[in-house]
């Protein structure tokens, strides 16, 4: 059954539905590989074979009774450890939540269970989703299956490395400033940030509530579309949940064509500051689209220049508020200092021991930005820039159907290379941040290997809010353009994990 790990989720679902293979067999195949190789990629913080196989058995029994709960029925999935799960620990990659067992499931997890997808385990991540490399996980970094000495992106590097390394056919990630799309780009995977509110955030450990969004990490665009169809929809438990359906993403993928397509290239995100090989792959994508009759239009988004600065004021401000609940009283770690353990001293000791350096850095920055006398100068000004970015995007989408940018400025860098340089780390998200500030959908699709290092590069498709189907349409077209060059899976070019040493 080892060949099962190389099939797409859609192919696995078809095999399961036709009863050529069982969900138990598919789930076991991915568990066998994960238990053998997770020590190399460190994709998972927690694996649960017993629960996953029990869910797979239920999926097989439902199928035998003629009940198929979704197009992905029986296909196993990995879940980022930022979503609460009542049958597995949820830590958000932090020591302050080590061993915490929630009493309920996140809405997305409920939807996965109801759709018949066995959950393989919880994936590694930067602590509280603060990072671009998974090096800020309190439990150690995940590694890129293409080169185990390199990062798999962040904050969802566990999900991207699991999918790219064939330790899971599907994964769930969270995207606050690029934490699904950036890891997808550097691991040769597909990653989607849906429109803000399209997927419920109930039961998601919040980083920045106005920016966070849950989405798919997969090996193909169709797999991502099928997964978004499963997890999206209105949720009364989430006050920011969109009331209306955005339609079928899978249908948009299956019916994709080039007819009348206008694609905008953002002037500010086309060449300067990007690795030569990444820029070359981006120009290659544009050339392929042009050869297929797509109209390419350069668009100007001048406020993008300030997006990183605005983002790193808005995010820390919201994070400092969201993380105030970790006070040693209600749940999580509690450290009792020597002497007189007042509540203030217990709280200080617990947060000192439980939070890592990046979390502390952002809490301090956010608290400062919200403080009296500085609120308008920093947080207020950042929100004004956010409005300008939304206006720039609205003007651009009046001219084109979608926007196209490189997803990341470079390919995967080496572990340790930027961990002590916060500014360099923050700039990894330069192309992905605008989508979160504007609440629009974005998808990263592999577009080849950079010439300098032979590592994956990705191209990002941005669409107007609630037009996720349009983004999927273009993502599918780009994926098909590269299939002739790379075969069905770009990641099949990657080195064999079993032959690599950490």
CATH architecture of the largest domain: Alpha-Beta Complex
Can you write the helix and strand succession as a string?
HHEHEHEHEHEEHHEHEHHHHEHHEEH
Q: Could you tell me the radius of gyration in angstroms?
A: 21 Å
- State the CATH class of the largest domain: Alpha Beta
In DSSP terms (H or I, runs of 4 or more residues), the helix count works out at 16
Tell me the strand order in the biggest sheet. Answer: 1-3-2-4-6-5-10-11-9-7-8
CATH superfamily of the largest domain: Amidase signature (AS) domain
* CATH fold naming of the largest domain: Amidase signature (AS) enzymes
> What's the domain count?
2
EC number: 6.3.5.7
Keywords: ATP-binding, Ligase, Nucleotide-binding, Protein biosynthesis
Domain Amidase: 25-470
Family: Belongs to the amidase family. GatA subfamily.
Brief description of this entry?
Helix content is about 40%, strand content about 10%.
How does this model look, in words?
By secondary structure, the protein is of the alpha/beta class. It folds into two domains: 2-265 and 398-494, Alpha-Beta Complex (Amidase signature (AS) enzymes); 305-383, no CATH class. Helices cover 39% and strands 12% of the residues. Strands 1-3-2-4-6-5-10-11-9-7-8 form an eleven-stranded mixed sheet, sandwiched between helices. Strand 2 (77-80), helix 4 (107-114) and strand 3 form a beta-alpha-beta unit. The chain is globular and about 70 Å long. The mean pLDDT is 94.
